[in-house]
Design a protein that fits this description.
By secondary structure, the protein is α/β, with parallel strands linked by helices. It contains 19 helices and 23 strands. Strand 11 (about 225) and strand 12 (about 230-235) form a beta hairpin. The longest helix has 21 residues, at about 130-150.
Length: about 550
Protein backbone atom coordinates (compact mmCIF):
# COMPACT_ATOMS: atom_id res chain seq x y z
CA UNK A 1 0.00 0.00 0.00
CA UNK A 2 1.16 3.54 -0.72
CA UNK A 3 2.36 5.76 2.16
CA UNK A 4 -0.32 7.98 3.68
CA UNK A 5 1.06 11.13 2.09
CA UNK A 6 1.00 9.64 -1.42
CA UNK A 7 -2.59 8.49 -0.94
CA UNK A 8 -3.54 11.99 0.24
CA UNK A 9 -1.69 13.71 -2.59
CA UNK A 10 -3.48 11.59 -5.20
CA UNK A 11 -6.93 12.36 -3.79
CA UNK A 12 -9.53 14.18 -5.85
CA UNK A 13 -10.60 17.01 -3.59
CA UNK A 14 -13.76 19.01 -4.12
CA UNK A 15 -13.67 22.83 -3.89
CA UNK A 16 -14.36 23.81 -0.30
CA UNK A 17 -17.55 25.60 -1.37
CA UNK A 18 -18.99 22.27 -2.51
CA UNK A 19 -18.14 20.68 0.83
CA UNK A 20 -19.84 23.55 2.66
CA UNK A 21 -22.90 23.16 0.43
CA UNK A 22 -23.27 19.54 1.58
CA UNK A 23 -23.97 20.92 5.04
CA UNK A 24 -26.04 23.84 3.79
CA UNK A 25 -23.48 26.49 4.76
CA UNK A 26 -24.15 29.63 2.68
CA UNK A 27 -21.19 31.23 0.89
CA UNK A 28 -21.42 34.41 2.97
CA UNK A 29 -20.39 32.45 6.08
CA UNK A 30 -17.39 30.83 4.43
CA UNK A 31 -13.89 32.36 4.59
CA UNK A 32 -11.71 30.34 2.16
CA UNK A 33 -8.02 29.72 2.84
CA UNK A 34 -7.16 28.65 -0.69
CA UNK A 35 -9.21 26.09 -2.65
CA UNK A 36 -9.66 23.32 -0.14
CA UNK A 37 -9.95 24.75 3.36
CA UNK A 38 -11.96 27.51 4.96
CA UNK A 39 -12.98 29.15 8.20
CA UNK A 40 -16.67 29.27 9.10
CA UNK A 41 -17.96 32.63 10.36
CA UNK A 42 -19.33 32.42 13.90
CA UNK A 43 -22.33 34.48 12.78
CA UNK A 44 -23.71 31.29 11.23
CA UNK A 45 -24.61 30.05 14.71
CA UNK A 46 -27.37 32.63 15.16
CA UNK A 47 -28.99 31.37 11.95
CA UNK A 48 -28.99 27.68 12.89
CA UNK A 49 -28.97 27.47 16.71
CA UNK A 50 -32.69 26.70 16.97
CA UNK A 51 -32.52 23.71 14.63
CA UNK A 52 -32.79 20.21 16.15
CA UNK A 53 -29.40 18.66 16.88
CA UNK A 54 -28.09 15.61 15.10
CA UNK A 55 -26.80 12.45 16.77
CA UNK A 56 -23.32 12.55 18.29
CA UNK A 57 -20.92 9.59 18.10
CA UNK A 58 -17.82 9.67 20.30
CA UNK A 59 -14.77 7.64 19.24
CA UNK A 60 -12.29 6.70 21.95
CA UNK A 61 -9.95 3.75 22.47
CA UNK A 62 -8.19 1.22 24.65
CA UNK A 63 -5.01 2.29 26.42
CA UNK A 64 -2.56 3.30 23.65
CA UNK A 65 0.53 1.25 22.82
CA UNK A 66 3.42 1.74 20.39
CA UNK A 67 1.59 -0.74 18.14
CA UNK A 68 -1.02 1.92 17.37
CA UNK A 69 -4.80 1.84 17.64
CA UNK A 70 -5.96 4.02 14.72
CA UNK A 71 -8.50 6.14 16.59
CA UNK A 72 -8.40 9.11 14.19
CA UNK A 73 -8.34 6.73 11.22
CA UNK A 74 -11.47 5.02 12.59
CA UNK A 75 -13.16 8.38 13.19
CA UNK A 76 -12.53 9.48 9.62
CA UNK A 77 -13.39 6.08 8.16
CA UNK A 78 -16.66 5.89 10.12
CA UNK A 79 -17.61 9.32 8.82
CA UNK A 80 -16.90 8.17 5.27
CA UNK A 81 -18.88 4.95 5.80
CA UNK A 82 -21.91 6.91 7.00
CA UNK A 83 -21.74 8.85 3.75
CA UNK A 84 -21.78 5.61 1.77
CA UNK A 85 -24.98 4.68 3.59
CA UNK A 86 -26.59 7.93 2.46
CA UNK A 87 -26.37 9.58 5.86
CA UNK A 88 -25.81 13.34 6.08
CA UNK A 89 -22.77 13.32 8.33
CA UNK A 90 -19.71 15.27 9.41
CA UNK A 91 -16.65 14.58 11.53
CA UNK A 92 -15.01 16.76 14.17
CA UNK A 93 -11.37 16.18 15.13
CA UNK A 94 -8.47 18.12 16.62
CA UNK A 95 -5.68 19.94 14.80
CA UNK A 96 -2.25 18.28 14.84
CA UNK A 97 0.55 19.80 16.92
CA UNK A 98 3.85 20.31 15.11
CA UNK A 99 5.76 18.81 18.05
CA UNK A 100 4.44 15.26 17.65
CA UNK A 101 4.33 15.61 13.85
CA UNK A 102 8.07 16.29 13.83
CA UNK A 103 8.68 13.95 16.75
CA UNK A 104 7.26 10.46 16.83
CA UNK A 105 3.99 10.44 14.91
CA UNK A 106 4.93 11.97 11.57
CA UNK A 107 1.35 13.07 10.86
CA UNK A 108 -2.04 13.23 12.55
CA UNK A 109 -4.78 13.40 9.95
CA UNK A 110 -5.91 9.77 9.90
CA UNK A 111 -4.24 7.09 7.83
CA UNK A 112 -4.42 5.01 4.67
CA UNK A 113 -7.71 5.58 2.85
CA UNK A 114 -9.32 7.25 5.86
CA UNK A 115 -7.70 10.68 6.03
CA UNK A 116 -8.64 14.35 6.14
CA UNK A 117 -7.14 16.47 3.37
CA UNK A 118 -5.21 18.53 2.36
CA UNK A 119 -3.08 16.37 4.67
CA UNK A 120 0.17 18.37 4.36
CA UNK A 121 -1.56 21.67 5.13
CA UNK A 122 -3.42 20.25 8.12
CA UNK A 123 -0.20 18.83 9.59
CA UNK A 124 1.99 21.85 8.79
CA UNK A 125 0.62 25.20 10.02
CA UNK A 126 -2.92 24.68 8.61
CA UNK A 127 -4.80 28.01 9.03
CA UNK A 128 -2.43 29.31 11.71
CA UNK A 129 -4.64 28.58 14.73
CA UNK A 130 -1.92 26.98 16.84
CA UNK A 131 0.49 29.82 16.07
CA UNK A 132 -2.17 32.31 17.19
CA UNK A 133 -2.54 30.40 20.46
CA UNK A 134 1.24 30.47 20.89
CA UNK A 135 1.33 34.24 20.29
CA UNK A 136 -1.51 34.93 22.74
CA UNK A 137 0.11 32.72 25.38
CA UNK A 138 3.49 34.43 25.02
CA UNK A 139 1.95 37.91 25.01
CA UNK A 140 0.71 37.23 28.52
CA UNK A 141 4.14 35.92 29.54
CA UNK A 142 5.78 39.07 28.16
CA UNK A 143 3.32 41.31 29.97
CA UNK A 144 4.02 39.52 33.26
CA UNK A 145 7.76 40.12 33.01
CA UNK A 146 7.27 43.67 31.81
CA UNK A 147 5.08 44.29 34.84
CA UNK A 148 7.86 43.05 37.12
CA UNK A 149 10.37 45.27 35.31
CA UNK A 150 8.18 48.36 35.50
CA UNK A 151 7.80 48.38 39.29
CA UNK A 152 5.53 45.40 40.06
CA UNK A 153 2.49 47.40 41.18
CA UNK A 154 0.53 44.17 41.68
CA UNK A 155 3.11 42.91 44.20
CA UNK A 156 3.62 39.66 42.25
CA UNK A 157 6.02 37.19 43.85
CA UNK A 158 8.30 36.13 40.94
CA UNK A 159 8.84 32.77 42.66
CA UNK A 160 5.13 32.00 42.51
CA UNK A 161 4.50 32.74 38.82
CA UNK A 162 2.80 29.72 37.28
CA UNK A 163 2.42 31.03 33.72
CA UNK A 164 5.23 29.69 31.53
CA UNK A 165 6.01 30.38 27.90
CA UNK A 166 4.84 28.19 25.00
CA UNK A 167 6.02 26.86 21.66
CA UNK A 168 4.53 24.32 19.27
CA UNK A 169 7.50 21.97 19.19
CA UNK A 170 8.95 19.18 21.32
CA UNK A 171 11.92 20.79 23.11
CA UNK A 172 13.05 19.21 26.37
CA UNK A 173 15.88 21.74 26.82
CA UNK A 174 13.29 24.47 27.48
CA UNK A 175 11.37 22.71 30.23
CA UNK A 176 13.23 24.73 32.86
CA UNK A 177 15.15 27.92 32.08
CA UNK A 178 16.44 31.12 33.72
CA UNK A 179 15.34 34.43 32.19
CA UNK A 180 16.13 38.11 32.79
CA UNK A 181 19.92 37.75 32.89
CA UNK A 182 22.29 40.46 31.66
CA UNK A 183 21.65 43.43 33.92
CA UNK A 184 18.82 45.67 35.07
CA UNK A 185 17.61 46.61 31.60
CA UNK A 186 17.13 42.95 30.63
CA UNK A 187 14.37 42.18 33.11
CA UNK A 188 13.98 40.55 36.50
CA UNK A 189 15.92 37.26 36.75
CA UNK A 190 13.74 34.28 37.65
CA UNK A 191 13.07 30.65 36.86
CA UNK A 192 10.77 29.97 33.93
CA UNK A 193 10.10 27.29 31.34
CA UNK A 194 8.08 26.29 28.28
CA UNK A 195 5.03 24.12 27.71
CA UNK A 196 4.05 22.78 24.30
CA UNK A 197 1.25 24.89 22.82
CA UNK A 198 -1.23 22.01 22.97
CA UNK A 199 -0.77 22.06 26.76
CA UNK A 200 -1.41 25.81 27.01
CA UNK A 201 -4.47 26.92 28.93
CA UNK A 202 -5.16 29.19 25.96
CA UNK A 203 -5.63 26.10 23.78
CA UNK A 204 -8.03 24.66 26.34
CA UNK A 205 -9.92 27.96 26.49
CA UNK A 206 -10.14 28.13 22.69
CA UNK A 207 -11.74 24.70 22.55
CA UNK A 208 -14.12 25.23 25.48
CA UNK A 209 -15.28 28.79 24.72
CA UNK A 210 -18.78 29.26 23.32
CA UNK A 211 -18.06 32.52 21.49
CA UNK A 212 -15.60 35.43 21.32
CA UNK A 213 -16.97 37.16 24.42
CA UNK A 214 -16.75 33.94 26.41
CA UNK A 215 -13.20 33.47 25.14
CA UNK A 216 -12.16 36.93 26.35
CA UNK A 217 -13.84 36.49 29.72
CA UNK A 218 -12.16 33.11 30.23
CA UNK A 219 -8.75 34.58 29.34
CA UNK A 220 -9.26 37.23 32.01
CA UNK A 221 -9.79 34.49 34.62
CA UNK A 222 -6.38 32.89 34.03
CA UNK A 223 -4.36 32.73 37.26
CA UNK A 224 -0.77 33.69 36.39
CA UNK A 225 0.71 33.48 39.90
CA UNK A 226 0.41 34.86 43.40
CA UNK A 227 1.39 37.97 45.34
CA UNK A 228 3.88 38.05 48.19
CA UNK A 229 0.93 37.64 50.58
CA UNK A 230 -0.35 34.62 48.58
CA UNK A 231 -3.27 36.25 46.79
CA UNK A 232 -4.02 35.13 43.20
CA UNK A 233 -3.13 37.39 40.27
CA UNK A 234 -5.26 37.14 37.13
CA UNK A 235 -4.63 37.97 33.48
CA UNK A 236 -7.30 40.65 33.77
CA UNK A 237 -5.23 42.35 36.48
CA UNK A 238 -2.50 42.82 33.85
CA UNK A 239 -5.07 44.17 31.34
CA UNK A 240 -4.01 41.43 28.91
CA UNK A 241 -7.34 39.79 28.00
CA UNK A 242 -8.39 42.16 25.23
CA UNK A 243 -5.17 41.97 23.23
CA UNK A 244 -4.94 38.21 23.70
CA UNK A 245 -8.50 37.74 22.44
CA UNK A 246 -7.71 39.99 19.46
CA UNK A 247 -4.89 37.62 18.49
CA UNK A 248 -7.40 34.76 18.56
CA UNK A 249 -10.23 36.41 16.62
CA UNK A 250 -9.73 34.15 13.60
CA UNK A 251 -8.43 31.10 15.44
CA UNK A 252 -11.77 30.75 17.24
CA UNK A 253 -13.55 30.19 13.91
CA UNK A 254 -13.84 26.48 13.02
CA UNK A 255 -11.86 25.09 10.09
CA UNK A 256 -13.75 23.18 7.41
CA UNK A 257 -11.97 20.61 5.23
CA UNK A 258 -12.90 17.20 3.81
CA UNK A 259 -12.02 13.52 3.93
CA UNK A 260 -10.61 11.52 1.03
CA UNK A 261 -14.22 10.69 0.15
CA UNK A 262 -15.35 14.33 0.40
CA UNK A 263 -17.12 14.00 3.76
CA UNK A 264 -17.24 17.40 5.51
CA UNK A 265 -14.73 17.60 8.36
CA UNK A 266 -14.29 20.24 11.05
CA UNK A 267 -10.67 20.24 12.28
CA UNK A 268 -10.39 22.73 15.11
CA UNK A 269 -8.39 23.02 18.33
CA UNK A 270 -5.68 20.68 19.55
CA UNK A 271 -5.36 20.04 23.31
CA UNK A 272 -3.57 16.82 24.30
CA UNK A 273 -5.63 14.17 26.07
CA UNK A 274 -2.98 13.24 28.63
CA UNK A 275 -2.24 16.77 29.89
CA UNK A 276 -5.40 18.65 28.85
CA UNK A 277 -8.96 17.58 27.99
CA UNK A 278 -8.09 16.25 24.53
CA UNK A 279 -11.17 17.21 22.49
CA UNK A 280 -11.88 19.45 19.51
CA UNK A 281 -13.70 22.74 19.96
CA UNK A 282 -17.18 23.06 21.37
CA UNK A 283 -17.95 25.65 18.70
CA UNK A 284 -17.16 23.21 15.88
CA UNK A 285 -19.12 20.36 17.45
CA UNK A 286 -22.16 22.55 18.11
CA UNK A 287 -22.16 23.80 14.51
CA UNK A 288 -21.76 20.29 13.13
CA UNK A 289 -24.66 18.98 15.24
CA UNK A 290 -26.96 21.62 13.76
CA UNK A 291 -25.73 21.07 10.19
CA UNK A 292 -25.56 17.25 10.01
CA UNK A 293 -27.75 14.34 11.06
CA UNK A 294 -24.80 12.39 12.50
CA UNK A 295 -21.52 13.79 13.81
CA UNK A 296 -18.48 11.65 14.59
CA UNK A 297 -15.95 13.13 17.00
CA UNK A 298 -12.96 11.75 18.91
CA UNK A 299 -11.34 12.22 22.29
CA UNK A 300 -7.60 12.00 22.87
CA UNK A 301 -5.87 8.76 23.91
CA UNK A 302 -7.78 6.09 25.84
CA UNK A 303 -11.25 6.13 27.34
CA UNK A 304 -9.70 6.71 30.78
CA UNK A 305 -8.28 10.05 29.58
CA UNK A 306 -9.97 11.78 26.65
CA UNK A 307 -13.13 9.70 27.02
CA UNK A 308 -13.62 10.56 30.69
CA UNK A 309 -12.78 14.21 30.05
CA UNK A 310 -15.17 14.40 27.10
CA UNK A 311 -18.06 13.51 29.40
CA UNK A 312 -17.05 15.32 32.58
CA UNK A 313 -15.56 18.48 31.03
CA UNK A 314 -16.52 18.97 27.36
CA UNK A 315 -20.12 17.77 27.61
CA UNK A 316 -20.75 19.94 30.68
CA UNK A 317 -19.37 23.02 28.92
CA UNK A 318 -20.88 22.26 25.52
CA UNK A 319 -24.35 21.18 26.56
CA UNK A 320 -24.31 18.01 24.45
CA UNK A 321 -23.75 14.30 25.13
CA UNK A 322 -22.96 11.31 22.90
CA UNK A 323 -25.69 9.04 21.59
CA UNK A 324 -23.15 6.23 21.24
CA UNK A 325 -19.50 5.58 22.00
CA UNK A 326 -17.12 3.62 19.77
CA UNK A 327 -14.12 2.11 21.56
CA UNK A 328 -11.32 1.29 19.12
CA UNK A 329 -9.15 -1.78 19.71
CA UNK A 330 -6.58 -3.74 17.71
CA UNK A 331 -5.31 -7.28 18.01
CA UNK A 332 -1.76 -5.91 17.96
CA UNK A 333 -2.33 -3.58 20.90
CA UNK A 334 -4.16 -6.24 22.90
CA UNK A 335 -1.21 -8.58 22.42
CA UNK A 336 1.08 -5.90 23.86
CA UNK A 337 -1.25 -5.53 26.83
CA UNK A 338 -1.04 -9.31 27.09
CA UNK A 339 2.73 -9.21 27.48
CA UNK A 340 4.06 -9.46 23.91
CA UNK A 341 6.98 -7.23 22.90
CA UNK A 342 6.50 -5.01 19.85
CA UNK A 343 9.11 -6.97 17.86
CA UNK A 344 7.06 -10.18 18.24
CA UNK A 345 3.65 -8.81 17.27
CA UNK A 346 3.82 -10.47 13.85
CA UNK A 347 3.62 -13.91 15.45
CA UNK A 348 0.21 -15.40 16.19
CA UNK A 349 -0.55 -15.40 19.91
CA UNK A 350 -4.18 -16.05 20.79
CA UNK A 351 -3.50 -16.32 24.50
CA UNK A 352 -1.92 -12.87 24.57
CA UNK A 353 -5.07 -11.48 22.95
CA UNK A 354 -7.11 -13.12 25.69
CA UNK A 355 -4.86 -11.69 28.41
CA UNK A 356 -4.82 -8.22 26.87
CA UNK A 357 -8.61 -8.22 26.56
CA UNK A 358 -8.76 -7.12 30.20
CA UNK A 359 -7.72 -3.62 29.13
CA UNK A 360 -10.41 -3.37 26.47
CA UNK A 361 -13.00 -4.68 28.91
CA UNK A 362 -12.09 -2.01 31.47
CA UNK A 363 -12.26 0.80 28.91
CA UNK A 364 -15.65 -0.43 27.71
CA UNK A 365 -16.80 -0.51 31.35
CA UNK A 366 -15.56 3.07 31.74
CA UNK A 367 -17.75 4.31 28.91
CA UNK A 368 -20.74 2.22 29.98
CA UNK A 369 -20.39 3.89 33.38
CA UNK A 370 -21.73 7.10 31.79
CA UNK A 371 -24.89 5.45 30.47
CA UNK A 372 -23.84 5.49 26.82
CA UNK A 373 -24.34 2.50 24.52
CA UNK A 374 -20.90 1.19 23.52
CA UNK A 375 -19.72 -0.42 20.29
CA UNK A 376 -16.23 -1.85 19.80
CA UNK A 377 -14.46 -1.19 16.50
CA UNK A 378 -11.80 -3.84 15.86
CA UNK A 379 -9.36 -1.96 13.66
CA UNK A 380 -7.86 -4.58 11.38
CA UNK A 381 -4.14 -4.89 10.58
CA UNK A 382 -2.78 -7.09 7.81
CA UNK A 383 -0.95 -9.42 10.22
CA UNK A 384 -4.03 -10.22 12.30
CA UNK A 385 -4.89 -13.92 12.05
CA UNK A 386 -8.36 -15.44 11.91
CA UNK A 387 -7.69 -17.24 15.19
CA UNK A 388 -6.75 -14.01 16.98
CA UNK A 389 -9.73 -12.10 15.59
CA UNK A 390 -12.01 -15.01 16.40
CA UNK A 391 -10.84 -15.09 20.01
CA UNK A 392 -11.41 -11.34 20.37
CA UNK A 393 -14.95 -11.46 18.97
CA UNK A 394 -15.70 -14.49 21.12
CA UNK A 395 -14.72 -12.54 24.25
CA UNK A 396 -16.79 -9.53 23.19
CA UNK A 397 -19.81 -11.67 22.45
CA UNK A 398 -19.50 -13.37 25.84
CA UNK A 399 -19.81 -10.02 27.66
CA UNK A 400 -22.59 -8.83 25.34
CA UNK A 401 -20.64 -6.03 23.70
CA UNK A 402 -21.59 -5.34 20.07
CA UNK A 403 -18.53 -5.17 17.81
CA UNK A 404 -17.62 -4.91 14.16
CA UNK A 405 -14.46 -5.34 12.14
CA UNK A 406 -13.16 -2.08 10.69
CA UNK A 407 -10.91 -2.06 7.64
CA UNK A 408 -11.06 1.65 6.84
CA UNK A 409 -7.27 2.03 6.63
CA UNK A 410 -7.08 -0.24 3.59
CA UNK A 411 -10.55 0.22 2.11
CA UNK A 412 -11.77 3.65 3.21
CA UNK A 413 -15.47 4.11 3.86
CA UNK A 414 -16.30 0.75 2.29
CA UNK A 415 -14.24 -0.94 5.01
CA UNK A 416 -16.31 0.76 7.71
CA UNK A 417 -19.84 0.06 6.45
CA UNK A 418 -20.43 -2.82 8.88
CA UNK A 419 -19.28 -0.64 11.75
CA UNK A 420 -21.47 2.25 10.59
CA UNK A 421 -24.54 0.01 10.33
CA UNK A 422 -23.91 -1.34 13.82
CA UNK A 423 -23.53 2.16 15.26
CA UNK A 424 -26.71 3.40 13.58
CA UNK A 425 -28.64 0.36 14.81
CA UNK A 426 -27.27 0.83 18.34
CA UNK A 427 -28.37 4.48 18.43
CA UNK A 428 -31.85 3.52 17.24
CA UNK A 429 -32.36 0.60 19.65
CA UNK A 430 -30.41 1.64 22.76
CA UNK A 431 -31.13 5.22 23.85
CA UNK A 432 -28.37 6.85 25.89
CA UNK A 433 -29.08 7.74 29.52
CA UNK A 434 -26.08 9.91 30.33
CA UNK A 435 -24.97 10.50 33.89
CA UNK A 436 -21.73 12.21 34.85
CA UNK A 437 -19.13 10.63 37.09
CA UNK A 438 -19.15 13.26 39.85
CA UNK A 439 -20.71 16.49 41.05
CA UNK A 440 -18.25 19.39 40.39
CA UNK A 441 -19.33 20.96 43.69
CA UNK A 442 -17.76 18.11 45.65
CA UNK A 443 -14.29 18.65 47.24
CA UNK A 444 -11.26 18.44 44.95
CA UNK A 445 -9.83 15.35 46.63
CA UNK A 446 -13.13 13.54 46.47
CA UNK A 447 -13.39 14.17 42.71
CA UNK A 448 -9.82 13.01 42.09
CA UNK A 449 -10.44 9.91 44.19
CA UNK A 450 -13.62 9.12 42.26
CA UNK A 451 -11.79 9.24 38.91
CA UNK A 452 -8.86 7.21 40.23
CA UNK A 453 -11.00 4.47 41.74
CA UNK A 454 -13.83 4.21 39.22
CA UNK A 455 -12.04 4.94 35.94
CA UNK A 456 -8.45 3.83 36.58
CA UNK A 457 -9.21 1.05 39.06
CA UNK A 458 -6.81 2.45 41.69
CA UNK A 459 -7.00 1.60 45.38
CA UNK A 460 -6.59 5.26 46.34
CA UNK A 461 -4.67 8.52 45.88
CA UNK A 462 -1.60 9.93 47.62
CA UNK A 463 -0.65 13.63 47.64
CA UNK A 464 2.74 15.30 47.93
CA UNK A 465 3.21 18.31 50.20
CA UNK A 466 3.21 20.57 47.11
CA UNK A 467 -0.08 19.09 45.95
CA UNK A 468 -1.66 19.71 49.35
CA UNK A 469 -0.54 23.35 49.19
CA UNK A 470 -1.89 23.68 45.64
CA UNK A 471 -5.29 22.36 46.67
CA UNK A 472 -5.50 24.95 49.45
CA UNK A 473 -4.65 27.67 46.91
CA UNK A 474 -7.25 26.32 44.47
CA UNK A 475 -9.94 26.83 47.08
CA UNK A 476 -8.91 30.48 47.43
CA UNK A 477 -9.74 31.16 43.77
CA UNK A 478 -12.99 29.18 43.83
CA UNK A 479 -11.56 26.36 41.74
CA UNK A 480 -12.74 23.73 44.20
CA UNK A 481 -16.11 23.70 42.39
CA UNK A 482 -14.58 23.05 38.98
CA UNK A 483 -14.30 19.72 37.12
CA UNK A 484 -11.06 17.74 37.26
CA UNK A 485 -8.70 17.37 34.28
CA UNK A 486 -6.22 14.63 35.20
CA UNK A 487 -2.70 14.80 33.74
CA UNK A 488 -1.59 11.17 33.53
CA UNK A 489 0.43 8.89 31.31
CA UNK A 490 -1.58 7.68 28.34
CA UNK A 491 0.20 4.32 28.30
CA UNK A 492 -1.39 2.81 31.41
CA UNK A 493 -4.59 2.94 33.41
CA UNK A 494 -2.27 3.72 36.32
CA UNK A 495 0.22 6.59 36.62
CA UNK A 496 3.08 4.17 35.80
CA UNK A 497 3.54 3.80 32.03
CA UNK A 498 5.00 0.31 32.48
CA UNK A 499 1.85 -1.19 34.01
CA UNK A 500 -0.03 -2.48 30.96
CA UNK A 501 -3.26 -4.44 30.71
CA UNK A 502 -5.63 -3.90 33.63
CA UNK A 503 -3.39 -3.28 36.64
CA UNK A 504 -4.74 -3.81 40.13
CA UNK A 505 -3.56 -3.04 43.64
CA UNK A 506 -2.00 0.33 42.76
CA UNK A 507 -2.35 3.89 44.04
CA UNK A 508 -2.15 7.18 42.12
CA UNK A 509 0.29 9.88 43.28
CA UNK A 510 -0.63 13.52 42.71
CA UNK A 511 2.56 15.60 42.85
CA UNK A 512 1.07 19.02 42.09
CA UNK A 513 -2.27 20.59 41.27
CA UNK A 514 -2.62 23.42 38.75
CA UNK A 515 -5.59 25.74 38.48
CA UNK A 516 -6.80 26.43 34.94
CA UNK A 517 -9.48 28.89 35.98
CA UNK A 518 -9.95 30.20 32.45
CA UNK A 519 -10.51 26.74 31.05
CA UNK A 520 -12.70 26.04 34.04
CA UNK A 521 -10.99 23.02 35.52
CA UNK A 522 -8.32 21.87 37.96
CA UNK A 523 -5.33 19.83 36.71
CA UNK A 524 -3.80 17.26 39.08
CA UNK A 525 -0.34 16.25 37.78
CA UNK A 526 0.41 12.57 38.38
CA UNK A 527 3.49 10.40 37.96
CA UNK A 528 6.17 11.60 35.57
CA UNK A 529 3.85 13.36 33.13
CA UNK A 530 5.38 16.44 31.44
CA UNK A 531 3.83 19.38 29.66
CA UNK A 532 6.79 19.75 27.27
CA UNK A 533 7.69 16.57 25.37
CA UNK A 534 11.09 15.82 23.89
CA UNK A 535 12.06 14.49 20.47
CA UNK A 536 12.84 10.77 20.14
CA UNK A 537 16.21 9.37 19.09
CA UNK A 538 15.13 9.33 15.45
CA UNK A 539 12.58 12.14 15.03
CA UNK A 540 10.07 11.95 12.19
CA UNK A 541 11.49 15.28 11.00
CA UNK A 542 14.52 13.39 9.66
CA UNK A 543 12.32 11.75 7.02
CA UNK A 544 10.35 14.85 5.95
CA UNK A 545 11.56 16.69 2.86
CA UNK A 546 10.37 18.95 0.06
CA UNK A 547 11.41 18.88 -3.59
CA UNK A 548 12.08 21.74 -6.02
CA UNK A 549 8.42 21.78 -7.08
CA UNK A 550 7.25 22.27 -3.52
CA UNK A 551 5.95 18.71 -3.09
CA UNK A 552 6.37 17.36 0.45
CA UNK A 553 7.65 13.84 1.03
CA UNK A 554 8.00 11.59 4.09
CA UNK A 555 5.17 13.10 6.15
CA UNK A 556 3.89 9.74 7.42
Amino acid sequence: MKPDIEIAQSATMAPIGEIAAKLGIPDEYLEPYGKYKAKVDLALWDQIKDRPSGKLILVTAITPTPAGEGKTTTTVGLGQALGRLGVKGAICIREPSLGPVMGIKGGAAGGGYAQVVPMEDINLHFTGDIHAVTAAHNLLAAMIDNHLQQGNALNIDPRSITWKRAMDMNERALRQIIIGLGGKSQGVPREDGFVITAASEIMAILTLASDLEDLKERIGRIVIGYTYDDKPVYARDLKAAGAMAALLKDAIKPNLVQTLENTPAFVHGGPFGNIAHGCNSIIATRLALKLADYVVTEAGFGADLGGEKFFDITCRAGGFTPDAVVVVATVRALKMHGGVEKEALGEENVEAVRRGFANLEKQVENMERYGAPVVVAVNRFGQDTDAELGALFELLQARGTPAALSDVFARGGEGGVDLAKLVLDTIKTKPANIKFLYDPARPIKEKIETIAREIYGADGVDYTRDAERDIRRAKKVGADTMPICMAKTQYSLSDDAKLLGRPRGFRITVREVRVSAGAGYVVPITGEIMTMPGLPKEPAAEKIDIDRDGKIHGLF
